[in-house]
Amino acid sequence: MALIELQGINKTYDNGQPLHVLKGVNLSIESGEFVSIMGASGSGKSTLLNILGILDNYDTGTYHLDGRLIKDLTEKQAADYRNRMIGFVFQSFNLISFKTAVENVELPLYYQGVPRKKRHELAMEYLEKMGLTPWADHFPNEMSGGQKQRVAIARALITRPRIILADEPTGALDSKTSVEVMGLLKQLNHEDGITIIVVTHEGGVANETDKIIHIKDGVIGNIEENTRHEAWGGSVIK
Amino acid sequence: MRELFHEIASSLRQNKLRTVLTGFAVSWGIFLLIALLGAGNGLMNSFMGNMDQFVSRSITVQGWRTSKPYAGYKENRSIQLDGKDVALTEGPQWKNTITGVTAGTGSFSATLSLDGKVVNGWLRGVSPEHQEYGKIQMAAGRFLSPADLQEQRKVMVLSLSQARELLPNSPDALVGRWVTAGALAYRVIGIYHTDEGDFRRTCFIPYTTYKGIYDPSDKVSSISFTVDGLHSLKEHEDFQEAYGDAIKRLHSIAPDDRMGIWISNGYTRNMQMSKAEGIIRIALWILGILTLISGIVGVSNIMLITVKERTHEFGIRKAIGARPGNILSLIIAESVAITAAFGYVGMFLGMVSCEILGKTVGQKGVDIGFETIRMLENPSVGLDVALEATLLLIVAGTLAGIIPAWKAAKVKPIEALRAE
Questions:
Q1: CA Rg, chain B, in Å?
Q2: Are B148 and B206 in contact (CB under 8 A)?
Q3: Where exactly are the structural domains of chain B?
Q4: Which residues 6+ apart lie within 8 Å of B375 measured at CB?
Q5: Hey, is A182 helix, strand or coil?
Q6: CA angle at A138 for the pair A149 and B420, rounded to the nearest 5°
Q7: Do A82 and A130 form a contact (C-beta atoms < 8 A)?
Q8: CB contact under 8 A, A159 and B14
Q9: Burial of A139 by CB count in 10 Å (0-12 exposed, 13-18 middle, 19+ buried)?
Q10: More reliable by pLDDT, B331 or B361
Q11: Rounded CA separation A155/A82 (Å)
Q12: CA dihedral (B45, B48, B52, B55) positive or negative
């Protein structure tokens, strides 16, 4: 079985009138893949990502993550799965503003109950990987967007998750930094074999990934293999 | 634990002013609680201290004035106890209950003089047991002995204030000397203690001596005794009722006349006092807690706002693996930390103000004529109250945090992440 296996996922929001967002999504993603989910706003891509990240639940269908059925989990179980299996990278970084870079990176390990010293060592190690050692004791508002996103990536990586879910990771960055961040994700995929799923509406960002999954009106459209990164005419980001 | 403190400290630092304002309400509540309890204790201490000299397990009966006409007598009649009452008290009816019956005489006014110095006094004939019943503390020498009564010795025990006036430099040296009282001389065998400002003038002489010299009748002014074998307040009250009725019958006093005789029962008074003390203490606690509640509501309110403002942060925490329990305990711990920290400030200030109260108002006495009493004696709260207050603070902090924490813990991560 693939690392991620979605079968007939339906999701309806009911805010006054029902809104059928996902209409029977079937999708499987193998371990070690670097894929992007592309679609316009309202296509259901964010909802799909939230379901993949166990941040939201679905109505019907099945979702298997690493062979385990993710359905009707308690909040506690969901939290533990998120903590151990999934690393999140958000458009708006979502760092905690009153914590330093290193404290932000440590936080997932805090919830695992890892001792303070060990946590700190590991966090410093990952910050070093991101080239942020001199910034370890800086607060998020003292850093640039690119630096913040790299802190967020370090935080996503520190628990050695099976998957990194990146929701518009370059959405708040300029094009130069965007290239750097995508390069970093690519490197993590190639060198460490981490499965990475990027949600984006930008062709240039999707072009950096090896597989592009198009989603439209709540159903999966065509899936492009993009090993030569020419899907968008080799266009660079933005 | 250390991590939790770190978490709390960093989030409280976010909002210093708000934290301080919230904390002030709690400090104020605890301050008032401690100050109220301290002042209450001081009042109680002085009350008990002032009562102490009257309190014992003994019962004393004295004649008084009737307030109701009965059996052909008019009201407002003076009741004089005599040998019949003593016989009744010692009699077979209560021989298992009543022990140590003694009678006290009336008093005889005399001028005491020594080497040209004079002071007036009231001679009163009593038995040796009177020392215990009257809670008399000796400053020097001894109290009356059975032999003094048997031999009708002319000896006396006078008060320290009298001794000071007769022999200002060394009142103790009065013991063993002869003092003239009226036309007769008495040898001083002891001096009983009186506080500064306590000008008691009673001089105790043997009962038999008094009867022989000043009053040969069988009249007595008071009868004192100890009771045994009564265990509950109810039994004591029943006994007192039955005994009082018997005395009233002897003097033809209306059974429902509360004024004819006066019975002073140390045991029931003790019980009533401690009951009253308990009620006052509970009332003070309730007042203090009510004040504290406004502080708790304040903390709860602030925590609610904090939780709302930090929803996004909780969303991040949940996304990276915080369980609902982690969030819950974080908020409650924050609430307890604010309440406890500021509560201790309030407690400390409350204790300080108790001390100040004790050093100022507590030192002042109120002159009630024959002696001065202190209104506040040692107003302070003990370690037990401090511990109770600590417990109260933790409970209060938890209560204040529960609703906000619950709200924070149950919000869905996806909704929390969307919140700004």
A1: 33
A2: yes
A3: 2-53+271-418, 106-214
A4: B42, B43, B46, B361, B362, B364, B365, B366
A5: helix
A6: 55
A7: no
A8: no
A9: middle
A10: B331
A11: 13
A12: negative
Judging by beta carbons within 10 Å of its beta carbon (0-12, 13-18, 19+), is residue B72 exposed, middle or buried? exposed
Structure tokens belonging to residue A87: 């690393």
| Whole-number Å distance between alpha carbons of A85 and A195 | 11
SS3 for A67?
Answer: coil
Q: What is the pLDDT of residue B153?
A: 93
DSSP state of B332: H
What is the Cα–Cα distance from A187 to B248, expressed in whole angstroms?
109
8-state DSSP, A235: P
Check: CB of residue A182 under 8 Å from CB of residue A170: yes
Give A216's strand partners.
A219
Q: Where residue B20 falls among pLDDT bands split at 50, 70, 90?
A: confident
Please report, for residues A6, A68, A131, B301, the alpha-carbon distance to residue A64 in angstroms, rounded to integers and kept in the order given. Answer: 7, 5, 35, 43
Q: C-alpha A64: how far from its chain's center?
A: 17
Q: What residues does B114 pair with on adjacent strands? A: B117
Per DSSP, the three-state class of B119 is: strand
Judged by a CB distance cut-off of 8 A, whether residue A13 touches chain B is no
Give which of A40, A59, A43, A42 is closest to A51, Cα–Cα: A59
Among A50, A56, A155, beta carbon nearest to B320: A155
Average pLDDT for runs of 10 along chain A of length 238:
91 88 93 92 89 93 93 92 93 90 94 92 93 94 93 94 92 87 90 92 88 92 80 51
pLDDT band of residue B130 (cuts 50, 70, 90) is confident
Q: What pLDDT, in 10s, does the model give residues B119-128?
A: 999 999 999 9
- Supply the Cα-derived Rg of chain A in whole angstroms: 18
Beta-carbon separation of B320 and A84 below 8 A: no
**CA-CA distance, A87 to B354, in Å (whole number)?**
57
Whether residue A99 and residue B10 make contact (CB cut-off 8 A), yes or no, is: yes
For residue A6, the one-letter residue type is: L
CA-to-CA distance for A14 and B259, rounded, in angstroms?
83
The SS3 assignment for A229 reads coil
Return d(Cα B60, Cα B89) in angstroms, integer: 11
* Residue in A with minimal Cα distance to B411: A75
- Chain A interface mutation, best of B15, B19, B320, highest count of A Cβ atoms under 10 Å: B320
* Cα dihedral B342→B346→B348→B349 (10° resolution): 140
- The torsion defined by the Cα of B396, B400, B402 and B405, in degrees rounded to 10, comes to -140
Q: Give the pLDDT band of residue B55 (cuts 50, 70, 90).
A: very low
Residue B117 has pLDDT above 50, yes or no: yes
| Secondary structure (DSSP) of A113-152 | T--HHHHHHHHHHHHHHTT-GGGTT--GGGS-HHHHHHHH
Would you state the structure tokens that stand for residue B210, as one six-digit string?
């008094």
Which residues of A fall within a CB distance of 8 Å from B316?
94-96
pLDDT, tens digit, for every residue of B210-265? 999 998 888 899 998 888 888 787 888 888 889 999 999 999 999 888 888 998 88
pTM of the model: 0.68
Chain B interface residues facing chain A, Cβ-Cβ under 8 Å?
A: 2-3, 10-11, 13-14, 312-313, 315-326, 412-414, 417
- Give residue B264's pLDDT: 85
> Which pLDDT band, with edges at 50, 70 and 90, does B371 fall under?
low
